[in-house]
C-alpha cells in the first residue's frame, strides 16, 4: 500500500472574474441609470501563486495567514474541489475534510435522506452509510427531527448533522479549516473528542487556523501564506513568529 502524500508542483489557481459579477435585476437597472459612469472591471483573482510543497505521511502541518491569504483555497485544492490553472497536484491516500459543512444538503429532503446523499458526495457507499445511520442520528442529537425536511432545521442543527456525517469515518489525510462551531457546550465537547480521534488516526493532518494554541499543540510544521504565496515553511514555532512579522508589515503598509 502506498504511503499517503500530498505533493504540489508549481501550482497556480485563478478565480475567474465572472464568478464575482452580479446578475441581479437590481444591478441591471443600476447600470441602465448610470451609463455615463466609469466602469469598474473585476479582474481574475490569482488565489494560489506558484505553490510547490510536499507533505509526507506522519506530518502534522499548520497553515497560517491572514484572511484571503490562500489557506482555505489550498485545502480545497488538495481536496480536489478546485481545478488548478497550471502545475501539478498529486494526492495519495483517502481524504477526509472538515470545511463547508453545509455543502451537499438537499433542503426538501429529510435529515435521514440527506445522510445518504451526503455520504455519496463523500465517496462512501450506500451500504456503508445505512450501517452508520443510527450512530449519526445519535451523535447529532436530532431525535425526531431526523425525519423532518432539512429546510426546517436551524443553522446549528444542520451543522451538527453535517459534522456527524462527515466524521462518521476517518481517512489517511485529514484537512481541517478553523475550529468548528457546532452547537451547544455538550455537543462541542463530543465534537472535539471526535476530531481528536480523527487526528490520532490520520497519517497526515493539515490544519488552517488562527488559533495559535491549537496550532502549537497539534502541529509540528508550519506553512505561512501571504497573498497566495508561501513565504515560510519550517517548524510551527518559527512559523508563528514569521506570521506575526508578515502581519506587522501588512499593518505598516
From TrEMBL:
- According to the entry, every stretch annotated as the ABC transporter domain falls at 13-252
Which InterPro entries has this protein been placed in? AAA+_ATPase, ABC_transporter-like_ATP-bd, ABC_transporter-like_CS, ABC_transpr_TagH-like, Bact_Polysacc_Export_ATP-bd, P-loop_NTPase
Stretches of the chain forming a coiled coil according to its record? none
Q: Does the keyword Iron apply?
A: no
Does this entry carry the keyword Metal-binding? no
Keywords (alphabetical) are: ATP-binding, Cell membrane, Membrane, Nucleotide-binding, Transport
GO cellular component annotations, sorted alphabetically?
membrane
Q: Superkingdom of this entry's organism?
A: Bacteria
**A single MF term (Gene Ontology):** ABC-type transporter activity
Q: Which PANTHER family does its entry note?
A: TEICHOIC ACIDS EXPORT ATP-BINDING PROTEIN TAGH
Q: Which family does it belong to?
A: Belongs to the ABC transporter superfamily.
Q: What's the protein name?
A: Lipopolysaccharide transport system ATP-binding protein
Q: Please report the organism this UniProt entry assigns to the protein.
A: Paenacidovorax caeni
Amino acid at each position: 500500500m502506498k504511503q499517503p502524500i500530498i505533493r504540489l508542483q508549481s501550482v497556480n489557481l485563478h478565480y475567474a472574474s465572472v464568478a464575482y459579477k452580479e446578475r441581479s435585476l437590481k444591478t441591471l437597472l443600476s447600470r441602465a441609470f448610470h451609463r455615463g459612469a466609469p466602469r469598474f472591471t473585476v479582474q481574475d483573482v490569482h488565489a494560489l501563486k506558484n505553490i510547490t510543497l510536499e507533505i509526507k505521511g506522519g506530518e502534522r502541518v499548520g497553515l497560517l495567514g491572514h484572511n484571503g491569504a490562500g489557506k482555505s483555497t489550498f485545502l480545497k485544492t488538495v481536496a480536489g474541489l478546485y481545478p488548478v490553472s497550471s502545475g501539478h497536484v498529486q494526492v495519495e491516500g483517502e481524504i477526509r475534510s472538515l470545511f463547508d459543512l453545509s455543502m451537499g444538503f438537499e433542503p426538501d429532503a429529510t435529515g435521514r435522506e440527506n445522510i445518504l446523499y451526503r455520504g455519496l458526495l463523500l465517496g462512501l457507499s450506500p451500504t456503508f452509510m445505512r450501517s452508520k445511520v443510527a450512530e449519526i442520528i445519535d451523535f447529532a442529537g436530532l431525535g425526531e427531527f431526523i425525519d423532518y425536511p432539512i429546510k426546517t432545521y436551524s443553522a446549528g442543527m444542520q451543522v451538527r448533522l453535517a459534522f456527524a456525517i462527515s466524521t462518521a469515518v476517518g481517512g489517511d489525510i485529514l484537512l481541517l479549516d478553523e475550529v468548528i462551531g457546532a452547537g451547544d457546550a455538550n455537543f462541542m465537547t463530543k465534537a472535539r473528542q471526535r476530531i481528536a480521534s480523527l487526528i490520532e488516526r490520520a497519517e497526515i493532518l493539515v490544519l488552517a487556523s488562527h488559533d495559535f494554541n491549537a496550532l502549537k499543540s497539534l502541529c509540528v510544521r508550519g506553512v505561512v501564506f501571504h497573498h497566495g504565496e508561501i513565504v515560510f515553511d519550517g517548524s510551527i514555532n518559527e512559523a508563528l513568529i514569521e506570521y506575526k512579522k508578515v502581519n506587522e508589515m501588512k499593518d505598516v503598509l
